[in-house]
Description:
heterodimer, A: 470 residues, alpha+beta, 3 domains, six-stranded mixed β-barrel, four-stranded antiparallel sheet, 11 strands, elongated, B: 254 residues, alpha/beta, Rossmann fold, six-stranded mixed sheet, five-stranded antiparallel sheet
Amino acid sequence: MKAYDLAELAVRNLRESVLRNSLTTVGISVGVASLVAMLSLGIGLQQLATRRLVKSGLFDTVVVTSRRDLRNFNRDEDQGGLAPAESPALDEPSRQKIERLPNVTEAYPDLRFITSFTYDDKPHLTMVAGVPASYRTNDAFEGIQGSFFSSETSPEVILQKTFAAELLGKTSKPGSDEVPVGEIAKPLLGKEMTMRYAERMPASGASDPNSQGRQPHESNDSPEAATYSIVSRELKLKIVGVTDLDPDSMRGPVRARVLLPLKLVESLHVVQPTALRDTTQAASKVPTYSTISVRVKDPGKIQVVEDAIKKMGFNTFSMLDATRSLRRFFAVLDLFLGIFGSLALAVASIGIVNTLVMAILERRREIGIMKAIGASDGDVKKLFFAEAGVMGAFGGALGVALGWTIGRLINIGTNVYLKRQDLAPEQIWFVPWWLVGSAIAFAIVVSLVSGLYPAARAARLDPVQALRYE
Amino acid sequence: MTAVPDTKLQNTAPAICTENVCRHYAMGESLIRAVDGISIRVPSGEFVALLGTSGSGKSSLLNLIAGLDRPTAGAVVVKGKNLAELSREDLAKHRLHTVGMVFQSFNLIPSMTVIENVELPLRFAEVDRSQRDSLARGALDRVGLGRRLHHRPSELSGGEQQRTSLARALINRPKLLLADEPTGNLDSRTGAEIMNLIREFNESMGMTVVMVTHERALAGQYAQRLIFLADGKLVDDQPNAASVAGTTSEAGRA
């Protein structure tokens, strides 16, 4: 029989006992719905976790350190390759070289130093870090109060929430209710504060402390670069923003509570921790960076980028292993959710077997007639198979819709709960297209497997026996 | 019509030939000999009646010729093929293309309309949808059922149902028409109409007809040859004197 005829006859036969077949189909759809609901929540949770982690920079940041550096980031000291003495210096040309690697979005030096600020005539000591301009567009500063830096070199400052609270004298005890960022930011935005810092100046000549935009390597050509003097400077900064970015996140300004535009920090020639060592290392005539953060286009390419940077002779560090085990966790979670979801489908498949076996008893005579007028065993088998398949397809489609609705309702319920707890709503449920397709396909496959026995039994039916019942 | 060359060929090869055919069932401890060593030859184009009381084995023999059942011993050769040796698949093809069957209880599928019932064998024969409708209408016209094509069998009279069943038997242009008590559920007038149709197919289309009946009178009125069975055995095989005169197919009798 042709496929179209088969489908037509199957649908016709199913319509003959609408109630029973509808109930069976509903059974399948409940099974598929539980599968889809479970998996959509699993996928949603995974995406939620991934979103959070991507924000923290866990997934897409590689930290590069020099092998010459004693303070090795990586516990795995021996990364192979060049000996420390032969390895390249982590300086501006190296940074540019890394930035030109494929799959790298940007590579920026981690410029940070501890210095003191004066606000309202009170001194505060904290860690300062430079923030690259690219942060304007990525989501690391999501929820910032005020605004991002107006330009890459403007004398502006963004404060971390805890430091902002400290400026206002509102240090909150751990465990006590958090003060919203907005409340802290309001009295600070637009105000000025003064930063005191130590500028590294070439010993040969004086330089203007406000000479912005001067590149560090300008003075590098001079043979005296390894000697310099340190001059104390002051710079007035305008507070433009307050962020509740976690200061301990992997992304960029690690443990820094005051953030300045990166280019501005570069132009200030603030003495870096590495500077002192530079003077003792004869080979180095160029200021080096202690670390460079490399942002990778796609978390999946971290390994490739890491390998390329290692080949250049640097040490690298990323949270790749951590993300790997996280992914493994979610794979197992999805598997378990899938198994629980499938249990209902397994029960539904028994319903299919039952319905079709009943249909054989009921349509015994009809099968006999079809055989008498020329239906082969294969035709009868295929017909019952098609009926199972059609029930599976309908049940699958209905189940996906039902599962989608259930997932959505759980999501809405969760968000109502989160709102009551004064937490931001989260999308914990997601139905990707592949899940829709594979759930329906799975329902059809399960139905067909359930149809195997009834179909074989119908095909074996002896027409003489079947027609004898008058 | 292909009657002329066919007749010559079929003089040598009969339409149906059974060779000591047996169909035994085990029923509990006892063995039922439904068909017990029957040998008959039915030339092409002949109208044969199988007569006997109920349980004589006439329906069992018909089922063996139809390929619905397999003999436990002996051979049933239809159109040169020994049905005992055919695969289940080939037996289905035999039922689909070589024979058309009509039953006492019509055996129409209740959920299908008249025209769908008639079309059904064409679906098994994988005939295109476009051709099916016209073929089915043609067959229904031939049995005199031009209307009520979209009614279900339950909405039809017995005669109309049997006409539908006849149209379905004809749809694949089989060479053999096997009828099992075709008038058993009909009143005598309607029964006669159906019998006249069957005789018409036999005469104008050259179809070989084997009809099972327990009515001696009916058989005598339409069949060219009467075969009497009792307890699964052949007891008498004779030409029907009454119908010989009116038969056009002289070549049919060997």
